[in-house]
Amino acid sequence: MVCWLKLSAENDLCGLRNTAFQPGESITYNIFYAVAGIYVNAGTASFSSTLERLNNTPVYHILAQGTSNSSYDWIFKVRDKYETYFDTGSLQPLKFVRNIDEGGYKKYENVTFNHQTNTAITTEGVYKVPGCIQDVISAVYYMRNIDFNKYNVGDKIPFKMFLDNEVYDLYIRYQGKETVKTKYGKFRAIKFKPLLLKGTLFQGGEKMNCWVTDDPNHIPLRIETPIVVGSIKVDMMQYRNLRHPMSSLISW
């Protein structure tokens, strides 16, 4: 998927600079679906970044897509596409597009953020938002730049997210560091639990476990979570053009 740290003000995480990723990075995942403890390869997901300009502002354009395999569409068909454009300096989103189909539930959302007026403009109206607002995808890349060494196990790292014309107060709960073995290999990892919103696919609460590489890239390695029916596990399977060496990889 943010004590506000051990620091005092809610804006302490505002102003993070990007040291974790670069344009041209791409990461691919396999999605495994489980019922009664048996996992099957049910889909794929991918994230890619490019450097572009939006209204004469340099932005990172992130494209995230998730698709269920055709042989499992009868169980729960997923065709999701997310795009975010965020400022390369402040890492604040300027535009967000969501076009999803999850088990027949379809949703299209197009949001423009105005940080001068602290508003989000959608096809349904204009909404007030606080400073340091994030969308679903920009939040992932913003959090990759968090220095987790500042936290103790159990600490909450709050963030605010705009989705479905509402502002949500969310957080990730730091769980510490551990070794995790994925389909790709064994890694030194950082673990946390995000607070999720209840939706058509995911259950709400702190039921998702996430692991990211314990190196300067902080790329997501594995996600495990229950869903409406069964559970899913997402493993990183391929990466290209990382900003830093994958120093967290212990063995293949």
Brief digest:
It comes from Filimonas lacunae. This protein has 252 residues and is mainly beta.
Q: N-to-C SSE series?
A: EEEHEEEEEEHEEEEEEE
Number of domains: 1
**Count of runs of 4 or more consecutive helical residues:** 2
Biggest sheet statistics: 16 strands, mixed
Overall 3D form:
globular
CATH class designation: Mainly Beta
Content of β-strand: over 45%
Secondary-structure class: mainly beta
Instruction: Please tell me the overall pLDDT.
Output: 89
Low-confidence stretches: 1-12
Distance between the termini: 26 Å
- How much helicity do the residues have? under 10%
Q: Do you know the CATH architecture? A: Beta Barrel
Number of strands: 16
Per the CATH scheme, the topology name is: YmcC-like fold
How large, in whole angstroms, is the Cα Rg?
Answer: 18 Å
